[in-house]
């Protein structure tokens, strides 16, 4: 029982020491010391999380810590799961981060500010799920947002686009905070208490309208943090511009907390709700899944691709959470537990492979200075370890066996396919569509990651920078190795997670399903069954691969492989410029989804001066803008700017006018009070 | 359950798909040749081609990497594992509890992806073009396949293929229902796209600009090419076999007798030959559609699959 508070106290102390070390120590010492302390924060937090998923619970009130209300903390299995994931990611990324920041000068991630903020950011990632009252939660949430904002801005001297991304992130995360504050304050006021225990107890007495309003407000804030459409616009800007270890932390640990928030408030504190909440959540999830992965398939910036893929995966998780709520609303609790378990398993899997993908992208950036897939290529021979690790993580991301993503998507599909037992026309329409959206996103994800791996790492270098790439430093590879080990373990023996997952699902009041256990994944509910044994699949594939590879050797007469020039249909050895680029690879998909993506293209033909028929120069430009941003955000921003301009006329400079405003304001306030009383 | 018969059935399925696939392709080419008024090269020609290719020197084009070298074996391996899982001969095998339909679909997709990566690995324009087109088609086929899986698993209550097949064999009304027929049609289109047949792709084309599958594998030669061709042929046989198992399940052994297994073997060969002949005959009369019309075809099959799911929901009286 005492493991959790001790571990959390250790994590806090280490984060404090790390922050001080980041400020005080000189550059050479700063990076390794802060890295080790950050890894310590992750290890301690992860230990606390593991203890909680193992069945321990802990709750305490710390009255002196925050003014007025005091801080309340509690750890149950659900919080423990998210803490363990965040802790594990922090440990691996901290090890990677030492190698990433060391030897690259005392700016960017190696700077005093960034190194001082990194350990507290890691701490907030672990501590947000610990909060057990509205004020504690909001304080930790805001600390997390501020720390991540400072880290996103770490490289602001190097690129102007970092500053723009920082502004977007700051504005959107604070809009989210306002929504969250409004929603939770309303909830606390109506439920008669601000601790989670009081909210849970008071939720049934709150009127359905208020509950719905709370869910919508809080849901918007949390889906924005999770990077789901339509409030995702910060994510594809902030993740690519942040230093790679920070992107990995944000994409693999921070966005998860949006999911945590929805599960905690929607299912646990509000105690579930009517079907329309969950149908809305599934719609948001489905739209994010398909829109996110479509944008990822179009992106030619490697980190932008990965960021949009985060949006997709969080969309899949939200579909699972929404399905869980929907099944609860219709009274099928075992199925709801299955859907939630699938969603949580996907959170874990996504954290493992996405952190690895961002770290590998960071290694590419360090080695070449490039993230543009169109200029990369040929890295597999120059950086074999990074390429291999990227391939392993990509296998997880495309949700095909034997990757780890397949297991959670399989479980999610099972819960949806069997969901038709639940009566209701809405269910009958929504579930098949969800299955189709998941399938479509899986298919496009395969295309997106074939593009990332095939264009970025295979073939031949398309630029001098890519041709002279060097393998990442040993510490970076070690950090990635930890994440790769996690991916492999999750892919082969997901049963290790089984009990923890069950306890996390039970923590929100649903029955445990035992879906993931021992050697495989098994679904056994009333009259449905299905099972999957990842180890068996891997063994069979390995055996078949050996036989297939040995077949030509047995029969063939000549065994030595001879080298030969590329044939290319007799065209002779092609230059790297003739190879397919990321843009050309994505072109057919872009054409198919033309109406959704609305690409903008620009063709400028300059004729020779003497004749209009002879062309001197052709300039072709095509962009695939984020259409939601285009259609939703720009009008709002224009409206705001217009309103701001118009409001200037209110301040004419006359003192009489200002006194008049004061008078009118006072009268209105008094009238409002008089009427309201 | 007698395990000996079960293991024999699994081994039989893998060997049948592995060794029979070239014959199925040869048979289809022969049917097509006769319909077009040609003599044809004989049913065994793909086997002779494979033997010739296997004897040649293995070639590694300069500038390609491990992805290019392992893709052919991976393609064959994924198809072979899928062949072990799908109940082509018997629903009562030692692996039948693992035979999940989603897993089989994913294994086939894994083979596609390996080949697409190999196409990109060559760094040639044609390789990339083929990979890009193949992944586009694969991405669009995926929803249709999974929705058909959904439609088929509603009456059976599971995505386990042996359970679906034996359920349908005992209750033929499931197949004649609107849901069953719609799912058949949808899955048939998806199979055409997955195996790269007309109208989606022309397997015997010699014009690089219209190629999908062939463009990815242009750089392969010798034993590697033999494996790629074998993989493609195995995939065709397997998917035709899957179609016949799901929609014409009669004759597949459900118990553990040697006689039933023998009958299943003969009936399987007959069903595949018939399906292959129908497909070959249809290809004589169809033309390949333009690449950018393919999505329309796939959208149509997606609609059929969606109708199948809703039909099976509303007609099964659950509501």
UniProtKB/TrEMBL annotation, chain A:
Keywords: Cell membrane, Membrane, Oxidoreductase, Transmembrane, Transmembrane helix. Pfam families: Proton_antipo_M. It is found in: Cell membrane; Membrane. Residues 132-426 form the NADH:quinone oxidoreductase/Mrp antiporter transmembrane domain. The chain crosses the membrane at residues 31-52, 73-101, 121-154, 166-189, 209-234, 246-263, 275-294, 314-331, 337-365, 386-407, 427-454, 475-497, 535-555, 655-675. It comes from the Bacteria. GO terms for molecular function: NADH dehydrogenase (ubiquinone) activity; oxidoreductase activity. GO terms for biological process: ATP synthesis coupled electron transport. It is a multi-pass membrane protein. GO terms for cellular component: plasma membrane. Its main location: membrane. This is Hydrogenase 4 subunit B. It comes from Streptomyces guryensis. The lineage of its organism: Bacteria, Bacillati, Actinomycetota, Actinomycetes, Kitasatosporales.
TrEMBL record, chain B:
Its EC number is 1.6.5.11. Its main location: membrane. It is a multi-pass membrane protein. It comes from the Bacteria. The chain crosses the membrane at residues 6-28, 71-89, 101-123, 135-155, 236-253, 259-285, 297-315. It is an enzyme of class 1 (oxidoreductase). Keywords: Membrane, Oxidoreductase, Transmembrane, Transmembrane helix. One of its GO terms (molecular function) is oxidoreductase activity. It holds the Pfam family NADHdh. The keyword Membrane applies. It is found in: Membrane. This is NADH-quinone oxidoreductase subunit H.
């Amino acid at each position: 029982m005492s493991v959790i508070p001790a571990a959390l106290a250790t994590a806090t102390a280490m984060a404090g020491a790390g922050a001080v070390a980041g400020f005080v120590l000189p550059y050479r010492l700063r990076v390794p010391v802060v890295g080790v302390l950050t890894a310590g924060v992750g290890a301690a937090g992860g230990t606390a999380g593991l203890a909680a998923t193992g069945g321990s619970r802990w709750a305490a009130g710390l009255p002196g810590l925050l003014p007025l209300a005091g801080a309340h903390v509690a750890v149950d299995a659900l919080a423990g799961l998210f803490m363990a994931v965040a802790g594990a990611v922090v440990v691996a990324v901290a090890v990677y981060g030492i190698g990433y920041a060391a030897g690259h000068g005392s700016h960017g991630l190696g700077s005093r500010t960034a190194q001082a903020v990194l350990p507290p950011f890691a701490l907030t990632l672990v501590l947000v799920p610990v909060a057990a009252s509205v004020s504690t939660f909001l304080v930790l949430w805001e600390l997390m947002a501020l720390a991540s904002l400072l880290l996103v801005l770490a490289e602001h001297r190097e690129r102007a686009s970092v500053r723009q991304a920082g502004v977007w992130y700051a504005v959107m995360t604070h809009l989210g905070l306002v929504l969250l504050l409004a929603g939770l304050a309303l909830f606390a006021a109506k439920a008669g208490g601000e601790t989670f225990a009081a909210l849970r107890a008071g939720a049934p007495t709150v009127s359905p309208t208020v509950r719905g309003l709370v869910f919508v407000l809080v849901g918007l804030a949390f889906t924005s943090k999770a990077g789901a459409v339509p409030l995702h616009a910060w994510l594809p800007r902030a993740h690519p511009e942040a230093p790679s270890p920070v992107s990995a932390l944000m994409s693999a640990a921070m966005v998860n907390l949006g999911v945590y928030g929805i599960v905690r408030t929607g299912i646990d504190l509000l105690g579930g709700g009517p079907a329309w909440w969950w149908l809305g959540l599934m719609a948001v999830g489905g739209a994010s899944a398909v829109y996110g992965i479509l944008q990822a398939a179009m992106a030619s910036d490697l980190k932008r691709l990965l960021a949009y893929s985060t949006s997709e995966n969080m969309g899949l998780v939200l579909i699972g959470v929404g399905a869980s709520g929907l099944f609860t609303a219709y009274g099928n609790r075992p199925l709801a537990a299955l859907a939630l378990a699938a969603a949580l398993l996907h959170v874990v899997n996504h954290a493992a492979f996405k952190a690895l993908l961002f770290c590998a992208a960071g290694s590419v950036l360090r080695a070449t200075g490039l993230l543009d897939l169109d200029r990369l290529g040929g890295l597999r021979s120059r950086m074999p370890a990074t390429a291999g690790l990227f391939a392993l993580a990509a296998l997880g991301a495309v949700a095909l066996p034997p990757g780890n993503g397949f297991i959670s998507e399989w479980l999610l599909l099972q819960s949806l396919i069997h969901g038709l037992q639940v009566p209701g026309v809405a269910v009958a329409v929504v579930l098949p569509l969800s299955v189709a959206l998941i399938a479509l996103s899986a298919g496009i994800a395969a295309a997106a990651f074939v593009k990332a791996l095939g264009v970025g790492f295979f073939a031949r270098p398309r630029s001098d920078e890519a041709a002279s790439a060097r393998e990442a430093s040993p510490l970076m590879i070690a950090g990635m190795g930890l994440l790769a080990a996690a991916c492999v373990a999750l892919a082969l023996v997901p049963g290790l997670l089984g009990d923890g997952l069950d306890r996390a699902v039970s923590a929100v009041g649903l029955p445990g399903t035992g879906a993931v256990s021992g050697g495989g994944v098994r679904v056994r509910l009333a009259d449905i069954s299905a099972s999957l044994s990842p180890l068996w699949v891997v063994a069979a594939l390995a055996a078949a691969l050996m036989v297939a590879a040995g077949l030509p050797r047995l029969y063939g007469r000549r065994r030595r492989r001879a080298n030969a020039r590329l044939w290319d249909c007799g065209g002779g050895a092609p230059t790297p410029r003739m190879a397919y680029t990321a843009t050309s690879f994505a072109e057919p998909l872009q054409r198919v989804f033309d109406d959704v993506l609305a690409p903008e293209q620009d063709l400028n033909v300059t004729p020779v001066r003497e004749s209009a028929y002879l062309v001197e120069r052709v300039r072709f430009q095509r962009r695939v803008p984020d259409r939601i941003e285009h259609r939703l955000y720009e009008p709002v921003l224009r409206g705001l700017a217009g309103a701001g301009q118009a409001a200037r006329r209110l301040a004419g400079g006359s003192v009489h006018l200002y006194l008049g405003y004061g008078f009118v304001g006072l009268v209105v306030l008094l009238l409002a009070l008089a009427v309201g009383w | 359950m007698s395990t000996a018969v079960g293991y024999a059935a699994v081994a039989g399925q893998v060997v049948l798909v592995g060794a029979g696939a070239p014959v199925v392709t040869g048979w289809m080419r022969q049917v097509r040749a006769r319909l077009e008024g040609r003599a044809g090269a004989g049913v065994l020609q793909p086997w002779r081609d494979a033997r010739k290719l296997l004897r040649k020197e293995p070639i590694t084009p300069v500038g390609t990497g491990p992805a290019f070298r392992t893709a052919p074996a991976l393609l064959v391996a994924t198809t072979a594992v899928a062949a072990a899982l799908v109940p082509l001969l018997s629903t009562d095998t030692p692996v039948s509890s693992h035979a999940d339909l989603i897993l089989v679909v994913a294994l086939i997709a894994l083979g596609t992806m390996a080949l697409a990566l190999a196409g990109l690995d060559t760094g040639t324009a044609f390789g990339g073009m083929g990979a890009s087109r193949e992944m586009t088609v694969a991405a669009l086929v995926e929803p249709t396949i999974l929705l058909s899986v959904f439609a088929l698993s509603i009456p059976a209550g599971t995505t386990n293929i042996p359970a679906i097949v034996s359920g349908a064999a005992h209750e033929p009304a499931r197949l004649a229902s609107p849901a069953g027929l719609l799912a058949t049609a949808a899955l048939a289109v998806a199979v055409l796209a997955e195996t790269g047949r007309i109208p989606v792709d022309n397997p015997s084309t010699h014009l690089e600009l219209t190629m999908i599958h062939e463009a990815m594998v242009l750089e392969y030669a010798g034993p590697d090419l033999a494996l790629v061709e074998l993989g493609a042929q195995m995939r065709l046989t397997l998917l035709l076999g899957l179609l016949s198992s799901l929609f014409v399940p009669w004759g597949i052994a459900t118990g553990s007798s040697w006689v039933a297994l023998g009958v299943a073997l003969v009936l399987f060969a007959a069903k595949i030959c018939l399906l292959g002949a129908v497909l070959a005959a249809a290809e004589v009369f169809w033309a390949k559609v333009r690449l950018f019309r393919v999505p329309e075809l796939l959208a149509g099959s997606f609609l059929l699959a969606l109708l199948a799911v809703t039909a099976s929901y509303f007609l099964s009286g659950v509501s």
